From TrEMBL:
Gene source species: Plantactinospora solaniradicis
Presence of the UniProt keyword Transmembrane helix in the record: yes
Location of region: Disordered: 285-316
SUPFAM superfamilies: Multidrug resistance efflux transporter EmrE (SSF103481)
Protein's UniProt name: DMT family transporter
Subcellular location: Membrane
Limits of the EamA domain: 5-136, 152-279
Keywords, alphabetical: Membrane, Transmembrane, Transmembrane helix
Chief localization: membrane
Pfam family membership, one: EamA
InterPro entries to which the protein is assigned, alphabetical: AA-Vitamin_Transporters (IPR050638), EamA_dom (IPR000620), EmrE-like (IPR037185)
Keyword Transmembrane: yes
C-alpha cells in the first residue's frame, strides 16, 4: 500500500473511532433527536456542495426505494439507538460491542442468499467473536443495562445489513451523492423531534464542540476521506480499518473520559477482533497453476472497488 494509502487508512481509523467519545459527551447536554439532527444536518450541508457539481443527484430519484431503505438502516435508526444507548453505556464499551458488525455481516449474508460455505475457520470466528461479546456485555446485563446493550447490538446488525442494499440494489449509484441525500433525508426525519426537544439554554461549550465534531469531522470529513481511501487502495483493503476502530474507541474513552480499562474489556477486544478476522476471511483459492497462496480479505458486504459498501462504522 502506498504512503498516501497508509495515511488515509490511519486517518479513517481515527475519524470513525472517536464518534463514540463525542456522542457520549453530546448526549449529556442535548436530547437524542437533537444530536442526530445536528449531526446529519451539518454533514449534509458540507457534502451537498461537493456532490452537486457532478450533476448526479437527479439520477438518484429512480433509486428512491433502496436509497430510503439504506438511509433508514444505515443512519436514521442506528444513530438514534447508538446515542440512546450511550446515555448508559461507556463510549469504549459501545465501540467494542460494535466491533461485532463484521461477524453479524457474515451471518446476515448467509441468511440472505450468500452461497459461500462458512467452513471451519469462519465458523470458529463466529464462535470466538460471540464469546467476546458475551464477556463484554455480561457486566452491563447484570447491572440492568440490558436495553442499552441490545440497542448497540441492533446498531451492529443495521451496520451489517445496510451494505447488502448497496451491493444488490445501488451498485451504480455514486457514493458521495448517495451519502449527501441519505444525510438530508435523515435530517428531515429528525427535524420535528429536534425542534420539540430543543434545549432552552445554550449547551456547554464541550457539548457544542462535540456536536460540531460529530457533524464536520466524524461525518462529512470522514466520508470524503473514506471515498479517497477507496480510490487509493480499493474496497476490500480499505475496510480493514474497521478492525482498528474499536482500539481507537477504547483509547479515547480511557484517556479523555477516564473510562476504566479492565481485564474483561481487553480480553473481549482480543476475542472480538480475532473472531472478526477469522469470520470474514475468504476461503483459500487454488489456481490451476498449482499455487496455494490464500486470499484473505475482509468480507463486510463489499462491493466494487470504485465505491464504498456502506456509509458508517462502522460506523458509527
Amino acid at each position: 500500500m502506498s504512503r498516501r494509502g497508509w495515511m488515509l487508512f490511519a486517518l479513517m481509523s481515527v475519524l470513525w473511532g472517536i464518534p463514540y467519545l463525542m456522542i457520549k459527551v453530546a448526549v449529556a447536554g442535548v436530547s437524542v433527536p437533537v444530536l442526530v439532527f445536528v449531526r446529519t444536518a451539518i454533514g449534509a450541508l458540507v457534502l451537498l456542495p461537493l456532490a452537486l457539481p457532478g450533476g448526479r443527484l437527479p439520477e438518484l430519484r429512480r433509486h428512491w426505494r433502496p436509497l430510503a431503505a439504506f438511509a433508514a438502516i444505515e443512519i436514521i435508526v442506528p444513530w438514534w439507538l447508538l446515542a440512546d444507548a450511550e446515555r448508559q453505556l461507556s463510549s469504549s464499551m459501545t465501540g467494542l460491542l460494535l466491533a461485532v458488525s463484521p461477524i453479524i455481516a457474515v451471518v446476515v449474508a448467509r441468511l440472505t442468499g450468500d452461497a459461500e460455505r462458512l467452513g471451519a475457520t469462519r465458523s470458529a470466528g463466529l464462535a470466538v467473536g460471540l464469546a467476546g461479546v458475551l464477556i463484554l456485555a455480561a457486566p452491563g446485563l447484570r447491572g440492568g443495562d440490558v436495553r442499552s446493550v441490545v440497542e448497540v447490538l441492533l446498531v451492529a446488525t443495521c451496520y451489517a445489513t445496510a451494505p447488502l442494499i448497496v451491493a444488490r440494489r445501488l451498485t451504480d449509484v455514486p457514493g458521495l451523492p448517495m451519502t449527501a441525500v441519505c444525510l438530508c433525508l435523515a435530517a428531515l426525519v429528525y427535524a420535528p423531534a429536534a425542534v420539540a426537544t430543543w434545549p432552552d439554554a445554550m449547551p456547554s461549550g464541550r457539548v457544542v464542540a462535540a456536536l460540531a465534531g460529530l457533524g464536520i469531522v466524524c461525518t462529512a470529513t470522514a466520508f470524503v476521506v473514506f471515498f479517497a481511501l477507496i480510490r487509493e487502495v480499493g474496497t476490500s483493503r480499505a475496510l480493514v480499518f474497521t478492525y482498528v476502530n474499536p482500539a481507537v474507541a477504547v483509547g479515547a474513552g480511557v484517556l479523555l473520559l477516564g473510562e476504566p480499562l479492565s481485564a474483561p474489556v481487553v480480553a473481549s477486544f482480543g476475542l472480538i477482533l480475532g473472531g472478526s478476522v477469522l469470520a470474514t476471511a475468504r476461503r483459500r483459492q487454488f489456481p490451476s497453476g498449482g499455487s496455494t497462496g490464500p486470499k484473505a480479505i475482509p468480507s463486510v458486504g463489499s462491493t466494487s472497488s470504485s465505491r464504498p459498501p456502506r456509509t458508517t462504522n462502522a460506523t458509527s
